[in-house]
């Protein structure tokens, strides 16, 4: 526990952690079971293209989530691109700007204009009340993002989509293991797309899945994932190589066996952070509401820093933590609309996105997961408390050490 600000690493003290604490350290299941699967892959010399592990992963995911179809893909970005194309979206599609850039890119990549909608600041999710003002005759769909694994306001999105004849898709990249009113994410809208990237609650190193109850959409997505091939010699649609490899599926299957344990650890870490940090001035947790029958995966510990109350900006706090080897993140700063090509295409977009801009300046995501020791949560919490309670000295110290000071 640091006593004086000169002990902070940013002012020359020893870092609190010898090795970096990352956000997004992968959760890994049983090593021997993974190695066994990898041995099977090597022995069978079947590495990709509808292999047995991919098929088994799809079957288990569909059963657990309760979706009629699960189409495993190489990552969620390609999964989104395929779902968007198989779902027939064109023209303009309404999406939040406060999301990972892949949500917008999946549209722009295929010549569809992402139209950015503001968020509800209490949930960080697309605000259904702001959608109708953005609809034009070119609008064909809405993509809700279940950011941080928190379900969108699904019923109200469904109502807007139905009223205007729009297709509703969900970017459920963060959504595995979460449910809404007792129904797992992955079962809503025309289709939902999950990510199994290394940083996600369930990982297959790289990977994702399109989940849908729509037989035609699933059939199309399945073909599009494999270049559009129907048989060896017949291509029906423009397609892409979106296949998941057997090696990814081996990771996915192994991690799926332990994913409920990962969630238990995540929840414990989240509650520990809350016990340690609740009540600190200017630091608030994004509430994780778990109503009866609902589940959350607790994969993201999201706090907001209100500089006026803490006396320390989010970015200065991040600088302090980074020096201590805590690699917290300011996801999803500065919002898609402030990144290229959207910044140039829509230079005025920020005027319609006040909440996105405000929240993007405040959000900080803390490390969690099975790679994070319980003791580290306490040390990290002490560091944050120390930095906030010594904010004035830190701000002065940072000014004094700034290159142009
Ligand atoms: N939609 C949404 C809402 C998303 O958040 C994402 C992805 C997508 C769509 C697209 O899904 P995918 O196409 O990726 O399946 C990471 C992930 O690469 C990305 O998957 C994720 N969202 C995004 C939120 O986070 P970065 O830029 O943070 O990656 P990077 O390299 O900084 O890694 C994050 C942290 O994880 C680091 O602290 C290091 C640690 N890490 C990472 C990897 C890969 C490890 O410890 N081990 C590892 O193997 O994007």
Measured between the Cα atoms of the first and last residue, the distance is 29 Å
Largest sheet: 7 strands, mixed
What hetero molecules are bound to the protein chains?
Answer: ligand T4K
* Mean pLDDT score: 96
Q: What is the CATH class of the largest domain?
A: Alpha Beta
CATH superfamily heading of the largest domain: Type I PLP-dependent aspartate aminotransferase-like (Major domain)
Helix content class: 25-40%
**What is the C-alpha radius of gyration, as a whole number of Å?**
22 Å
Shape: globular
* β-strand amount: 15-25%
Number of domains: 2
Low-confidence segments, given as residue ranges, are none
Let me know the number of strands: 18
Structural class per helix/strand content?
A: alpha/beta
- The DSSP helix count reads 13
Q: What spatial order of strands do you see in the largest sheet?
A: 2-12-11-8-7-3-4
- By CATH, the architecture of the largest domain is named 3-Layer(aba) Sandwich
